[in-house]
Amino acid sequence: MKRKDEVFSKIILNNLQRERKVFSKYACKNNRGIRKYPDREKVPDRENIRPIFFHDTDKIIHSLAYSRYIDKTQVFYLFENDHITHRVLHVQFVSKIGRVIGRCLKLNEDLIEAISLGHDLGHVPYGHDGEKVLDSLCKDNEIGCFCHNAQSVRFLMEIEKGGKGLNLSLQVLDGILAHNGEMLSKEYKPNYGKTWEKFEEEYMKCFTEENYSKKIFPMTLEGCVVRISDVIAYIGRDIEDAITLRLIERKDIPQGIRQTIGDSNDKIINTLALDLIKNSYDKDYLAFSEDIFKALKDLMNFNDENIYHNPQIKTQTHKIENMFKQLFKKYYQDLENKDTDSPIYRYFLKDMDDNYHKNTDKKRMAIDFIAGMTDDFFNHQYNELFVPQSYGYFLKPLNDDSGACRKIR
């Protein structure tokens, strides 16, 4: 046993020495990782051969919320095409892009990976359209706001493991909360020195102040890498998906954008990543060059107009909105009536601890349940609860020797 402990101690020491030799002075080293409840860890972080952020990645990928990535919309829903990007692919793209940027800038790849893989866990069925409906439902029912950033943290910190949470580090949770990939900046500078108190203040305000998540920045340079890698990961991939679905043609991309950053996903990723690395090397912030940033802004505007708000993919939005509203109303009524046969009890609340039951508004419980659903489960729930189910046909043999049957209801 002593020999085994000596081996593990040597491994941990080697990890620390490698960080000191390789990491930039602006990187977030593993020994700076902070847990709110360090005593809950089976193996203390300082004695674990898995560094704290590496361990956080393990916790995330083994979570229930992570397993539901597999059937969550990225941008395009209701299209029957197996090659369209789903949420599970997107977070992997963000992780790969973020890690190569982080490696070139000598940052902590483990922290980048953990934030990347966890950043979209709070996305709801039908992507951003579903998110907008849940936000409206929260406001209409006077329970605050909804945004997927904060819901990702909520799953990891307050809902996983029956309400106990995963006890992730401050740096990972903060990077997830502040990842907002829809907010583009020429420069990304961390809000260094953030505390648990400051993080929790920002977290709570995301549920009470509209669009507050757009005002916050990560506390680490690694968190900033994920924030911009989110954009780099989706901006070109969405174009490829839109071309596959014949919503746009490659030639539709404005000439100035094509010449500056490219017109295909691989060229766009390569151009943006290399420009970011070149302009951020050995600095305590991330930055694009002026011409690349302008082209990226123009491309985001192009995508917004021609893809994300393309009327061809919005024809079913009103139906989806009604589905959300009906399911929310049904679950809330079931909670009010204490109907323990309701799906919200069977699939969700039966596994939650007393603290969640006592301290969570019933309307927020319904929001949490819907937010965690995959697209297929959401559709199944709607069909089960609101679409009449066929009893089928019963067959009665004819009274002759033919063996034939006739249908009766």
Question: What's the CATH C level?
Answer: Mainly Alpha
**What portion of residues belong to β-strands?**
under 5%
pLDDT averaged over residues: 90
What is the domain total for the residues?
1
Q: For the largest beta sheet, what order do the strands appear in spatially?
A: 1-2
The rounded distance between the terminal residues' Cα atoms is 73 Å
Principal-axes shape call: globular
Helix count equals: 18
What is the SS-derived class? mainly alpha
Can you tell me the CATH architecture?
Orthogonal Bundle
Structure description:
This is Metal-dependent phosphohydrolase HD sub domain protein. Keywords: Hydrolase. It holds the Pfam family HD_assoc. One of its GO terms (molecular function) is hydrolase activity. InterPro entries: Diverse_Catalytic_Enzymes, HD_domain, PHydrolase_assoc_dom. The chain has 409 residues and is mainly α. It has one domain (2-313): Hypothetical protein af1432, CATH 1.10.3210. Helices cover 55% and strands 3% of the residues. It has a two-stranded antiparallel sheet with strand order 1-2. The radius of gyration is 24 Å and the shape is globular.
Index terms:
two-stranded antiparallel sheet; mainly alpha; Hypothetical protein af1432; 409 residues
Layout of helices and strands:
Blueprint: H1 2-22, H2 52-61, H3 64-67, H4 87-104, H5 109-118, H6 127-140, H7 148-159, H8 170-177, E1 187-188, H9 196-205, H10 221-244, H11 255-261, H12 265-280, E2 286-287, H13 290-308, H14 317-336, H15 343-347, H16 354-359, H17 362-371, H18 375-386, E3 394-397, E4 405-408
Protein name: Metal-dependent phosphohydrolase HD sub domain protein
Domain HD: 90-233
InterPro entries: Diverse_Catalytic_Enzymes, HD_domain, PHydrolase_assoc_dom
